[in-house]
Design a protein that fits this description.
Blueprint lengths: L6 E11 L6 E9 L1 E4 L6 E14 L14 E14 L4 E13 L11 E12 L9 E11 L7 E11 L2 E7 L1 E7 L4 E23 L5 E21 L4 E18 L5 E6 L4 E10 L1
Antiparallel strand pairs: 1-2, 1-16, 2-4, 3-4, 4-5, 5-6, 6-7, 7-8, 8-9, 9-10, 10-11, 11-12, 12-13, 13-14, 14-15, 14-16
Length: 281
Amino acid sequence: MRCQGTNLARIEYTYVPQAQSDNVYSRFRVSANYPIKMDDKGTYLVISPQYRFNNLQIKDALLFNTQEEINNFHTAGIELGYTFKMKNNWRFGVKAGIGISSNFEESGVKSDDFRYTGSVYFVKSYKNKEAPKTAGLVIGLKYTTPASLNFPLPIINYFKRFHPSWSYSIGTPKTSIKYFFNEKNTLQAFVGLDRFYGNLQSNRVFTDANGNNKIAENASMLTFLSSLGYEYYFTEHLLFYTYAGYTLSNEIRLRDKNQNDVLSINNKNTFYLRSGIKLKI
């Protein structure tokens, strides 16, 4: 029976048309986790590359005339993780990574395009559960700089498969309940977070409605969303998924170097669609 697992690879497309606007945010994402076994005691080195193409089509009138260059952001990075087993069915993990996220409107890579990330976490597995009933707990912290939320973000999630046909997950960044029709088909409802951040290589200088001079140096999106999703397993580890839902909080903003808001482009809630293929263990 299916249970919560680790993604080895993912290909995904996200589409978010903004309400009362012709603005559209879309994203193509490719990511992978490649574990390298270090010993027979459950110690692994994990290499995690990823790439995202973020397309931000801004049709609303802005306070400057060059919004067309804001549209396309490329995000690429790699993380190196290390994990090992502890006592009482606990596992420790740590990750560090480097990446770039920019609209690359000028030639070459700039120092402000770089982003750095680090995370630490503990995972508890409840081995006394009989299959398919399983449970697990993840707690930790993740920090990325620069970012629109410039402080460590908590990672906390409790998962439980309490019935052959039902499971739930409570915590961040996702809370969900899932129904298993059979070995190949599942349905889930969830709420969660989605984020985007990219550097503007050419800063935008403009005057706001109050006559204050502003400098926009990066763009960000933070979305709190609700969704209904369907998953179809081609094999035990390979599945197709599609999620559709409505945002509960939705903002696209331009920020200065201190991550202060200088311009809100749109904060109307809207429908969204996400679909892709995962390879899991």
